[in-house]
Amino acid sequence: MPRTVEISRSKVRSIVFGGSETVAVALQSDLIPLVDLEKGTVKRTIDVAKKIAGIHFAFTKTPVLYAVDDSFGVHVFDIRADSKKKLRLNPDVENHQAKCSAISDNYIAIASSCFIQPVVKKRKNQKEYSDDEEDTMTSHVISIFDARNPCAAVMTLSKYHPAEITSMAFDRKGVRLAVGDSAGNLNMFDLLNRKKPQIVPPKQLNATVLTNGFISRVVRYALTADNTVHSYVDDDGGEDILFVKKFPDNEHVIHVMKGSCDDFPVDTISTNDEGKLFIRTIEQDGEEVRLLKRWSGHKSRALVAAYNDEIVVTGGSDGLLVINPVDLSAGADVFINENEKAAEKRKKDPEEVKTPSKKETDAKKKAKSSKNDSESKKKSSSSNGVAAK
């Protein structure tokens, strides 16, 4: 059953898992509540005292939370040891505010926008590469730092995004970086290739990129503001479109994740204006979308979600966190087998393919039990009548 935790009156901006027991939540304010998933309570609230550009968990021996603020400060919190420190990063750009961030074991990437005039500092002894040699720098850049020694930038990507960068994500190896912006530009960079980091041709989508990233070694995705999921697959060093799927206007996709089988490689978490939540799975060619799970919990439309293979956590403008244990390990295969006949009848409306709820099942059992009891009483009374004769 879903559990609801009221964490704030401020809306939830992002959610990240810190292991199987904890999530960190970035709010509209500068506060980061840490929520105990088992107890459903806020066990600690971290005050960064700066506008938060991104939050991330890294794992060594203990979970460590990184909070990136808008002035290139990185606040590092060791959750178990209850210790903290702050790093001040030194980018190769001036007059910039951090907008979003991504962290891997190898790199810290911070996207920023210029609020006065684009300036790149030239260091005489700088050995690392920056791609601004042709003087084509835009007002929106990505500064790359070595995660082990993050004081100075080792790379600056400065000519690829003419609009504000809205989403960044590393692949599992932590060397490829997927980036999207508010004008619908989508890029992928190989940070090991300093001279030519842009490894696939850029893509121009029709709307702002809300989130993008990698759901497997060969498949990546982008979710755009027009409620469309774009999926791409590696093809001998290039990329092919796997599918482009637009969802209906009355249901908003808020999270994209790996599907549980090859035929249905992409799952989505979506919400409607009443706060109901849905997990749907998308067929490889994008033609068919099937409902896997549904539940309620929010007072209005949810805004963000996170999933760790066991639990879905969602947050919204109502300041609520809804925690729902969800097992998708069997995924579409089980769904298809259990609902094969119903699915054939209702192919055009996957939401109509329903599995009876526990309440409905209990009601049917109770009705059947009552019917059996009444039949037993009738038989008993008739047998008593025969005996009396």
UniProtKB/TrEMBL annotation:
Record-linked Gene3D superfamilies: YVTN repeat-like/Quinoprotein amine dehydrogenase
User: What protein is this chain from?
Assistant: WD repeat-containing protein 89
Q: Which InterPro entries match?
A: WD40/YVTN_repeat-like_dom_sf, WD40_repeat_dom_sf, WD40_rpt, WDR89
Instruction: Look up the domain of life of the source.
Output: Eukaryota
* Keyword Repeat carried by entry: yes
Q: Which UniProt keywords apply?
A: Repeat, WD repeat
Q: Which residue ranges have biased composition labelled Basic and acidic residues? A: 341-378
Q: In its keyword annotation, does this UniProt entry include Repeat?
A: yes
* Taxonomic lineage from the root: Eukaryota, Metazoa, Ecdysozoa, Nematoda, Chromadorea
Q: Where is this region: Disordered?
A: 341-389
